[in-house]
Amino acid sequence: MRPFLPANFQEHIACPLCKSELTWQSDACSCHTCGQQFRRRADGIWDFVIDHPPFMTHVLAEWQHGQDEYESWDAKLGDDLQQHLEGIEGVREIYTTEFHLAGDVLDVGGHQGRLRHFLPTDAQYLGVDPYTESFERLASQPNLVKAYPCLAQPCAFLRAQAERLPLKAELFDYVHMRSVLDHFFDPLLALLEAHRVLRPGGGLLLGLYARGGASSIPDRSGAELLFARLRKKLRDEGWTRTGIAALRRVFGMGDHDDHVWHPTYNDLLVLLERANFTVEKVHWVKPPFEHVVFILGRKSATHREFITRQTY
Question: Which of 38, 86, 122, 182 has the most CB atoms around it within 10 Å of its CB?
Answer without folding.
Answer: 38
